[in-house]
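Board work, copied verbatim: Putative hydrolase
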Amino acid sequence: MNFDTSGYTWAHEHLHIDLSGFKNNLDCRLDQYDLICQEMKDLRALGVRNIIEMTNRYMGRNPQFMLDLMRDSGINVVACTGYYQDAFFPEHVATRSVEQLAQEMIDEIVIGIDNTTLKAGIIAEIGSSEGVITPLEEKVFIAAARAHNETGRPISTHTSFSTMGAGATGLVAGAGRRSLPRGDWSLRSER
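↓ predict structure ↓
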């Protein structure tokens, strides 16, 4: 499915997420298909054509849920790949190399996510902790930059309480970030 430039794009949404193992808030778990699908149909009627979905690996991302929403609502969903913040990292982030983490992201962009046809169109939501970028977060930022260099997909970051933005930018730039030509948003989420 192509990125549709004829309407609005919502740039940071969570359609399916489960952070209930980390937080005790009512909004930490979104998984009500019928409700979300109806909201997306309402958005489509208002001109929304794309949603950039920022739920990445190990945050309760559900690629089949997203594929079904695209089919039933008519809105393109641009899925992401990456890892959020240190507190949310699975154990293997500590044991895998930067190259291995980058390859995981590249595979989700090129091959697909979790054995589905949904391919990531953005590297996100790459996060830093409040007031610090931990060594593991630094590793993920560098892996994200390498995945960007390989695929050309944009990177979106997350700062906690507006801290560490300059540090995150420096890490990505230091890892050889390249600029994309204007209009290079050939995002595809194929079914």
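Residues 179-191 have pLDDT under 50 and may be disordered.
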